[in-house]
Design brief:
Layout: H1 5-21, E1 24-27, H2 33-48, H3 54-67, E2 76-81, E3 87-96, E4 98-108, H4 114-128, E5 134-140, H5 144-152, E6 156-165, E7 168-178
Parallel strand pairs: 4-5
Antiparallel strand pairs: 1-2, 2-3, 3-4, 5-7, 6-7
Helix pairs in contact: 2-3
Length: 180
């Protein structure tokens, strides 16, 4: 049987799309706590590894472990689980200033479906907050892929400010999208 290069390319894209659809997005439950801790520590290490010294990353990880910020989070939290039930993403949203806007955080472990997963999280969060007029998200300036994703989805950089990561200071964009 002979397959054209285009057909094989199309089959590969279809296979990747189906693998991305195998990802389950659901609300965070109490029993997710330990696995969420493991996910978030891995996320922190991956997020900053290319531009922050290891000792600063370790300090940030220790700070996170002591605080466990999400345990007292007031808002909505969703995780993405792969077909093996591993947490590969976390999205949070809460009202920002008033009930017309939300601030969103989307943290994803590096994988080939990052943009599709970001899109699915964004869609899920906007479905959860139907009456909002604008969405804000903070994105590390050094994460060009993530910044470009949100710009392609109609977000604009609203302001940039410094944020400490251990002893290192990184710039964080607060991006905004006004909804129709």
């Amino acid at each position: 049987m002979h397959f054209s290069g285009f057909y094989l390319f199309e089959m590969n894209i279809s296979k990747q799309y189906n693998q991305c659809m195998d990802i389950l997005i659901r609300p965070v439950m109490k029993e997710d706590t330990v696995r969420l801790d493991e996910f978030y520590v891995e996320f922190i290490r991956n997020e900053y590894k290319d531009f922050v010294p290891v000792e600063d990353i370790n300090e940030l990880v220790n700070e996170y472990k002591n605080e466990g910020w999400y345990k007292n989070f007031v808002g909505k939290m969703f995780i993405a689980l792969d077909k093996n039930k591993n947490i590969i993403g976390l999205a949070t949203a809460k009202y920002f200033d008033d009930e017309d806007s939300i601030i969103v955080s989307i943290d994803i472990l590096s994988n080939e479906f990052e943009d599709k997963l970001r899109g699915r999280f964004l869609d899920k969060l906007t479905q959860e907050y139907l009456n909002i007029k604008e969405i804000f998200i903070e994105v590390c300036e050094n994460n060009f892929k993530e910044t470009n994703f949100f710009i392609s989805r109609g977000f604009a950089i609203w302001e940039t400010s410094p944020a400490p990561v251990g002893k290192k200071i990184v710039n964080v964009h607060l991006m905004q999208k006004v909804l129709p």
